Amino acid sequence: MIRGVDWGQRLEMAAAWFLAFLWAAPLLYATWAAFHSMDFVSRFDLTAALTLDNFRSAWKVAPFARYFLNTFMLVFMTLAGQLILCTLAAYSFARFEFPGKNIAFILVLIQIMIMPDVLIVQNYLTTSKLGLVDTILGIGLPYMGSAFGIFLLRQAFKQVPKELEDAARVEGAGWLSILLKVYVPLARPTYLAYGLVSVSYHWNNFLWPVVITNSTTTRPLTVGLSIFGAPESGVNFSVISAGTLLAVSPLLIAFLLFQRQFVQSFMRSGIK
Length: 272
Fold this sequence. Notes:
mainly alpha; MetI-like fold
């Protein structure tokens, strides 16, 4: 019986390592190709010389500096809008009573089950009427009213003891002061977990940005990288791999540096 359990654990460990290798294999190959010349893209040789020329070429061929700026602006603008709107909506659902509250919350839950890509046509029509086509605000606007964020923060706010709010009211605090000084600090792990999900999603989002953007001044990294790596661009695979590493490196570095904080925030927020 003990041996059976031991073998079961070993099989689980082997399967976990195998799946991890499958997930990391494309990134490992891109790393190899990025640091070697084109001659070694399809030939593995440990004695092959390392080079940074591919990164220099990628940075010169494509406006990566502009793509990085656009992506940072998009990610943090969208996150700021989400945190403001979701916090206000979640607090309303958690603590206020108003007609149609349950129906409105059911509609929010239904929105979670709808893929954003289904609404691309309607989002484009709305963005076009607002005159926001080919703007960074137009890319982020459809995602600011996040149903997932509202649900997550509502659950966090409902766990805050009502006695803390009552004590704050006795001290003369209004609803906004209570929200900012009582609820928001206690929901910090949930905010961090949601922020990580939002940043990673919008950093890697491709379909909506490629539909709504037309110029270099607004394209994020994902769209710029797809154009940079297109066959008609004539760029070799080593340079494309270098561009790929440039695009994903900020998230990878952030995860490697703060992985313990990431895991703890997800555990405390209840996201499994």
